[in-house]
């Protein structure tokens, strides 16, 4: 997987700010190796390992099982790191407790339907803002997913894209940070409304595979890049529904 280039960290930034940048990249790009972090931050591997050790000691990052990240040659496989809830909390917004209590009160006095209505209203504003951004990206499905990831990142969701499978017929939209994670743990309606908004924006049925609120290390949404349309064929005088798959347009690349 590829990662965006980052500015070099100047010496006067200090240890704390450099360590925070390391944590940000683990949140955004995890699972990610120390070697990749060193390349992006223009640091020595030894310096990155020092920061990783500090973050591990403080329970902010952990080693992730690298199975499925791709075959590696001889020798010990590289460690890949992901952020913990404590690590994400360092970067999270405040007022989660207040929002959770407010929604709990809303559910108590107005019922679960009121919470769903609130969740839908919340994502509707996001959807309106993102619609023009995706429209500018053009009709290519992959480009629209990348544009959505960039829009989400600008709003603090640390979103990236990854190619799903070897055939390149789908992308995974990954969100390494969620400003409302603590609230969504009690009110999954927020995640459900967001998923439905992604489907409408991308014009395909997407599937949420994991969420930070549900215990995942990243929110992962599977986005197919093929448009399935029905057609009919005659078999023995009767019409049968069949499906044809339109191949995706545009190049399928990792947007990380």
TrEMBL record:
Residues 232-256 are annotated as: Disordered. It comes from the Bacteria. Pfam families: HTH_24 (PF13412). PANTHER family: HTH-TYPE TRANSCRIPTIONAL REGULATOR SRLR-RELATED (PTHR30363), TRANSCRIPTIONAL REGULATORY PROTEIN-RELATED (PTHR30363:SF28). This is Putative ArsR family transcriptional regulator.
């Amino acid at each position: 997987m590829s990662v965006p280039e980052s500015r070099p960290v100047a010496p006067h930034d200090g240890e704390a700010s450099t360590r925070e940048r390391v944590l940000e990249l683990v949140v955004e790009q995890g699972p990610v190796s120390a070697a990749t972090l060193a390349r992006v931050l223009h640091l020595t591997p030894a310096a990155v390992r020092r920061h990783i050790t500090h973050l591990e000691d403080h329970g902010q990052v952990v080693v992730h099982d690298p199975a499925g990240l791709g075959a590696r040659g001889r020798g010990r496989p590289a460690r890949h790191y992901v952020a913990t809830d404590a690590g994400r909390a360092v970067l999270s917004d405040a007022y989660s407790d207040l929002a959770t209590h407010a929604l709990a009160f809303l559910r108590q006095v107005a019922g679960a339907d009121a919470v769903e209505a609130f969740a839908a209203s919340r994502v509707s504003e996001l959807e309106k803002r993102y619609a023009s951004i995706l429209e500018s990206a053009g009709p290519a499905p992959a480009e629209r997913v990348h544009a959505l990831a960039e829009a989400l990142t600008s709003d603090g969701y640390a979103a990236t894209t990854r190619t799903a499978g070897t055939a390149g017929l789908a992308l995974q939209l990954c969100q390494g940070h969620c400003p409302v994670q603590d609230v969504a743990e009690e009110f999954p309606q927020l995640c459900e409304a967001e998923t439905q908004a992604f489907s409408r924006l991308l014009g395909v049925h997407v599937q949420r595979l994991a969420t930070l609120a549900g215990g995942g290390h990243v929110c992962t949404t599977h986005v197919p890049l093929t448009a399935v349309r029905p057609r009919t064929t005659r078999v023995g005088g009767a019409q049968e529904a069949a499906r044809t798959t339109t191949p995706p347009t545009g190049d399928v690349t990792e947007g990380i």
